[in-house]
Amino acid sequence: MFNMSFDIHKSWKPYLEQELNKQYFNDLTGFVKSEYNKHTCFPPRNQIFNAFNHCHFEDVKVVIIGQDPYHDHGQANGLCFSVNEGIKHPPSLINIFKEIELDLGIPYPKSGNLIRWASQGVLLLNATLTVRAHQAASHQKKGWEIFTDAIIKIISDQKQGVVFLLWGGFAKKKIKLIDNQKHKVLTSGHPSPLSANRGYWFGNKSFSDANIWLEDNGEKKINW
Asked: Is 90 exceeded by the pLDDT of residue 114?
């Protein structure tokens, strides 16, 4: 039996129960099951909800919003911008790590696996959680965006003092789901080369600003 809701960590279940029982999520489950049965899709089926399984609801301190999983072999692991151990870093991730170097003086890391962030309370949330191999955006507008918008709204409503990092035009549209009286919203250009090379990414200080906010609100800063 294929039931995607079984794969979401129990800490999220009380907050998502209504969403998981809606017709669109049932339809989405059927679509994803069909896609994974007929085609090569990413991330692997057991990693679709890694963002939630490595960052439990009570631990969420920072939310980073991406758009689609990587669509090449071995890359996607269910965390936005993250790749598996030993995989060449994609251009956006390279620019993320370069900005961390500039911002915090942290040396460029060997591993592009961002589980180390997730385990500290960083929810690495793609708007669309699955994709067909080599076909970017192939699983958009099938219901994932409804689900992930609900996640953002639930975090905004149910938690206090979360930092939302909205990079690029797509992510910035999510600001309408966030109560910026309760939370900190930091925006910048996207880390993709197109945006970064035009001067919209480097020097944004997202990472130091997020840590300043967390510490000012009594939270432990993220070791980026």
From this structure: yes
Task: Reply yes or no on whether 68 is catalytic.
Answer: yes
Q: Residue length, the chain? A: 224
Cα distances (Å, whole numbers) of residue 123 to 39, 73, 160: 28, 23, 15
Whole-number pLDDT of residue 5: 64
DSSP notation for 91-131: HHHHHHHHHHHHHH-PPPPS---THHHHTTTEEEEESS--E
Give the residue among 217, 80, 83, 88 at the shortest CA–CA distance from 161.
Answer: 217
Identified catalytic residue from 7, 68, 149, 209: 68
Taking the model in full, what pTM does it have? Answer: 0.96
Distance CA 40, CA 20 (A): 25
Structure tokens of 135?
A: 């076909």
User: What does each C-alpha distance from 205 to 39, 70, 101, 202 come to in angstroms?
Assistant: 40, 25, 10, 8
Q: What is the pLDDT of residues 38-87, one digit of tens each?
A: 999 999 999 999 999 999 999 999 999 999 999 999 999 999 999 999 99
User: Of the candidates 79, 81, 120, which has an alpha carbon nearest to the alpha carbon of residue 99?
Assistant: 81
